[in-house]
Design brief:
single chain; flavoprotein; Vanillyl-alcohol Oxidase, Chain A, domain 3; Uridine Diphospho-n-acetylenolpyruvylglucosamine Reductase, domain 3; 18 strands; FAD-binding PCMH-type domain-containing protein; Oxy_OxRdtase_FAD_BS; 5-stranded antiparallel beta sheet; FAD-bd_PCMH-like_sf; alpha+beta; 7-stranded antiparallel beta sheet; 31% helix; Uridine Diphospho-n-acetylenolpyruvylglucosamine Reductase, domain 2; disordered N terminus
Length: 480
């Protein structure tokens, strides 16, 4: 099994028995190249050593491995694509069992209901192609092709089509889940509905999804993609561009077929937009005339697949599948939290003058709202239905992150909080897909789950009172 243990522990004996001699099934810290071949951390700035890594080939094996961990007092986290900013797929802290779901990547389509059944390790790039090849279908998701569905559809799953169709988790019809006692159950609106509520937004705290049933839409036939590059503008000039863009995305009547982001980076700023429709419909929407025009702009028309390829290329500007050292902060904005013009100038002036400590930094503002807001705040664990915008910052270093770089992003975040209309006492929270390891456990739970946290704590006490599924920021069970 790729390891040698002179005196196996009870946990090791249990894991070895599940593997039944199969090669590449379980790895231990004593194995040569354990981190490189088994753990494969995404964020190299965070060192984590799981007690073991297992690679199940079926849902039954996932359940057996969870049983091994639970009976030995070890917590568990699963990895599908492995893009957690804090390496939570590896446990987020030393000593947990990491379940690598790489083999669970199946796909099938029901041509009567147009519902797709998909394994958690299926990555978005493959799922997109499979949906097109099986009936020209689609559903909302992010655009990084290497992200696995397991984490994406249980944390939220936001992307440029979310204003039109909602979050990825809004497309989950049913799921097969391994629970804390090693049982396989189904979760839907009619079967274990409380667990179904919890896994759609807080999945890593409640179980491991081994199969999703997803509703789909007919794929758009034409997609207009817009990019304007504002190079080497000073703080005041870029702030004016941002405020013009923010006014567009703040409009509650904005055509839902439009998704957009504003990216601040060392050379200036980029505005990208995706409109799911024809050029004539794009023009008729009135959006082009409202967006900033004084940059180097391009507008192209693609089909659905080509548009996602372009989005993936844009995403690779600031964070890709490459393992590296990085740091990130984020925040969500309700309509009443959007910045006044003078505040934007102050914020961008800070960025202009700050010592960054690296040339690889990006601050991204993503539009939200639209169909995401159609779902009630308490309908799923995802609590950010009221957000019209999210910001994320990234700083990347190939070798190691300096304290200067971290301070740049931390000070940007605190400056932004102070510039909010309500000041830094305003509690607006952030999306747990942009997990922030710098937050304390209590802070993180409050910001990620907000008004849904008390309900989740009660459900945690029911479904996982011993915290078999745990990371440094997971939901805590309510006191009994």
């Amino acid at each position: 099994m790729g390891h040698s243990q002179s005196t196996p522990s009870a946990l090791q004996t249990c894991l070895n028995n599940v593997c039944a001699g199969r090669s590449s099934c379980v790895g231990y810290p004593s194995d040569l190249l354990y981190q490189f071949e088994w753990v494969k951390p995404y964020n190299l700035a965070i060192d984590i050593t799981p007690v073991a890594v297992v690679r199940p080939q079926s849902a039954a094996e996932v359940a057996a491995f969870v049983t091994c961990a639970a009976s030995n007092g070890v917590s568990v986290q699963a990895k599908s694509g492995g893009h957690s900013y804090a390496n939570f797929g590896s446990g987020g802290q030393d000593g947990e069992l990491m379940i690598d779901l790489a083999a669970l990547n199946s796909f099938s389509m029901n041509n009567s209901t147009w519902q797709a059944t998909i394994g958690p390790a299926a990555v978005l790039g493959d799922v997109t192609t499979q949906l097109i090849d099986n009936g020209n279908r689609a559903f909302a998701h992010g655009v990084c092709p290497g992200v696995g569905l397991g984490g994406h559809a249980t944390v939220g799953g936001l992307g440029p089509m979310s204003r039109m169709w909602g979050a990825c988790l809004d497309h989950v019809v049913e799921a097969e889940v391994v629970t804390a006692n090693g049982t396989l159950v189904r979760a839907s609106e009619t079967e274990n509905p409380d667990l179904f509520f919890a896994i759609r937004g807080a999945g890593s705290s409640f179980g491991i999804v081994t199969e999703f049933v997803m509703r789909t839409h007919p794929a758009p036939g034409s997609v207009v993609q817009y990019t304007f590059d504002f190079t080497f503008g000073n703080a005041a000039e870029l702030a004016k561009v941002y405020s013009t863009w923010q006014a567009v995305i703040a409009d509650p009547t904005l055509d839902r077929r439009f998704g957009t982001e504003f990216i601040l980076y060392p050379l200036g700023a980029i505005i990208t937009g995706t409109f799911y429709g024809t050029v004539a419909e794009w023009t008729a929407s009135g959006i082009p005339a409202r967006l900033p025009q004084n940059g180097n702009g391009t507008v192209v028309v693609n089909d659905w697949l080509a548009s996602l390829t372009q989005e993936a290329e844009n995403e690779a500007l600031y964070l890709s599948n490459t393992q590296t050292n990085f740091y990130s902060k984020s925040l969500g904005f309700r309509e009443q939290d959007l910045l006044e013009a003078d505040a934007v100038i102050d914020l961008f002036t800070y960025v202009e003058n700050a010592n960054k400590g690296t040339l690889l930094w990006f601050i991204i503002f993503d539009a939200s709202g639209g169909a995401v807001a159609d779902v009630a705040q308490n309908a799923t664990a995802f609590a950010h239905r009221d957000k019209v915008l999210f910001y994320q910052s990234y700083a990347i270093d190939l070798l190691s992150l300096s304290s200067t770089t971290k301070a740049f992003l931390n000070n940007f975040h605190s400056t932004l909080l102070n510039l909010l209309p309500g000041g830094n006492s305003t509690t607006v929270g952030t999306y747990s897909g942009y997990v922030d390891p710098a937050l304390s456990s209590a802070q993180a739970q409050g910001e990620y789950y907000m008004t849904n946290l008390p309900t989740l704590e009660v459900l945690k006490a029911k479904w996982d009172p011993k915290q078999v599924f745990r990371n440094p920021q997971s939901v805590q069970p309510a006191a009994v």
